[in-house]
Amino acid sequence: MEYRGKKSLDIMKTTAKRYNQWLVTQVKNHLKSPILDAGAGNGAFVELLLKDYLVYAIDQDLELATNLQKILPKEKAGYGDIEQAIYFFNKKKFKTIMCFNVLEHIKNDDKALLNLYNLLSHRGKLIILVPAHQWAYGEMDKEINHFRRYSKDSLKNLLENNHFTIISIKYLNMFGLLGWFVAGKIFKRKMVSAGQIGIFDKIMGLITILEKRIEPPVGLSIFAVCQKK
């Protein structure tokens, strides 16, 4: 299946470098090799992890999956469909799976989570990031083929129903939610511009300080760490 948000991925990779690094710092304490980036897109997070970890990457879009092989060896990157449990590797298990901004693109997210569970080794961890708050669903969600946005309760229930033990779950990026809502819901824009992302990335230091001190009650995303029983 072709992914419609490739331009947005490229903007985020080149313009939101502080934001991407911030997300990686959120997961550092939970990462163990081998790691699978499930739905790796253009490899923005793969490149941040490569120096310290053994990383594999899959994507459901054939073009993106092929391009991942420019970052990783062919035996570590390729096609993967977590909804249908079709992968380029053979029966491999992972100590950590990262699934960032992927689940919302999958019609049967329940099935996809069970398949991710089966890819984890004993006591392995799934680190997941999904868009938050269905009331913020707007034109930008439609443009990049989001089926839904999540609440903490809906994601928690989904994870627990698929046998995961939740270690932590929280909202991230309250200021990003405001920008997303205004652009996509009020002004009906289909994409955030590179300039807007650049401005946001420049204030990441302030956002980081604020969200370290006070856990936001709402956010652009929900970040969850869970473990295979």
UniProtKB/TrEMBL annotation:
<keyword id="KW-0812">Transmembrane</keyword>
<dbReference type="InterPro" id="IPR029063">
    <property type="entry name" value="SAM-dependent_MTases_sf"/>
</dbReference>
<keyword id="KW-0472">Membrane</keyword>
<protein>
    <recommendedName>
        <fullName>Methyltransferase domain-containing protein</fullName>
    </recommendedName>
</protein>
<dbReference type="Pfam" id="PF13489">
    <property type="entry name" value="Methyltransf_23"/>
</dbReference>
<keyword id="KW-1133">Transmembrane helix</keyword>
<feature type="transmembrane region" description="Helical">
    <location>
        <begin position="164"/>
        <end position="183"/>
    </location>
</feature>
